[in-house]
Amino acid sequence: MKRVTSRRPEGGVRRSESRRGLTLIEVLVVVSIIALLAAILIPAVQLARGAARRTKCLNNLRQIGIALNAYVADHGVYSRT
Q1: CA neighbours within 13 Å on the CB side: how many for 30?
Q2: Strands of 1-81, DSSP E
Q3: φ, ψ (nearest 5 deg) of residue 61
Q4: How far is the CA of 34 from the CAs of 28, 41, 42, 47, in angstroms?
Q5: pLDDT tens digits, residue range 33-45?
Q6: For the whole prediction, is pTM greater than 0.70?
Q7: Which has more pLDDT, 80 or 22?
């Protein structure tokens, strides 16, 4: 009996063996997804920074008010002039 073996065409390579890296399309898709996520995330980070700046400013104004009240409580006047 003759033994039957599956042969590849001359010079041909099986698909599973030739697949070693990413195609250009796959790389572009991954890069575009990362860019989209960054574009969504950046405005949220800027809003959080703005809120932190406002909170810091309000806290500074509150501290100035507390210091002024403490000065008035100690000296009985707003200024010494």
Answers
A1: 6
A2: none
A3: -65, -40
A4: 10, 10, 12, 20
A5: 999 999 999 999 9
A6: no
A7: 22
